[in-house]
Amino acid sequence: MIDSLLLTAARISTFEHDRPLTNASGFFFEREERMYLVTSRHVLIDEPSDHHPNRIEIEVHTQADDLAKSIRFSVMLYDDGKSQWRQGRDAAGEIDVAVLQLDRSALPDNAVIHPFTPDHIQPVDKAVEVGSSVLIVGFPLGFHDTLHHLPVVRQAVVASAYGLRFQGQGYFLTDARTHRGTSGAPVVLRDHAAPVDANGDEQVLPPALPWRLLGVHSASLDMSGRDKVQDETLGLNCAWYADVLMVLSEADD
Length: 253
Known about the structure:
The protein is mainly beta. It has helices at about 40-45, 245-250, and strands at about 10-15, 20-30, 35-40, 55-60, 70-75, 80, 80-85, 85-90, 95-100, 135-140, 150-160, 170-175, 185-190, 210-220, 235-240. The chain has a seven-stranded antiparallel beta sheet. A six-stranded antiparallel barrel has the order 10-11-12-15-14-13. A two-stranded antiparallel ribbon has the order 6-7. Strand 4 and strand 5 (about 70-75) form a beta hairpin. The protein starts with 8 loop residues before the first strand and ends in a 5-residue tail after the last helix.
């Protein structure tokens, strides 16, 4: 038996035409029969590093009983020069989350995908204790099970007050060992009890995916004044609150 959590994530490779650029993480999110790929915005475009891919590739499993079988699925990032992903801003500036709607008709009929849904999103006004154990599901440095095309998980803890915008930004902190390539990974909490929706009513998550989606891992947080010889990195990371997906996945009028 494979934990369905491992089938929520996708390894992302970015390209400028056929030239490989970077590796990153992402995950699937479904809302009202629309399927999205979620990742960090800087995976798709990053002006400071002059990172401008024009397409990505993701791996999709094609047989539930043989996870060694997969295909690489290519997605163009621009159409007539217009970016195809959605990204957001708030009062503090850019939000490092992007969603890219996938053409479901282009996906194989037998694609093995376990997407998160709005029901999995943990409301920010519902307490998650500081120090709670969470998982980050991704592909650090591109590392993964190359035979079965599956991600790995890193253990983390919630390191700041969940529900508060750390330093006014739309994220909370996790304490975890992470690497390049983890950007865009889901940050999840095992569902041991019935969660509640925005109205405070209990809801039962689908048993196939008993996890609560807290955030989207973005990047490690460091101090500009750190002495790189004497001081280790903080080991802290930014995770953007997952409720931003409800804004980014709204249907077009």
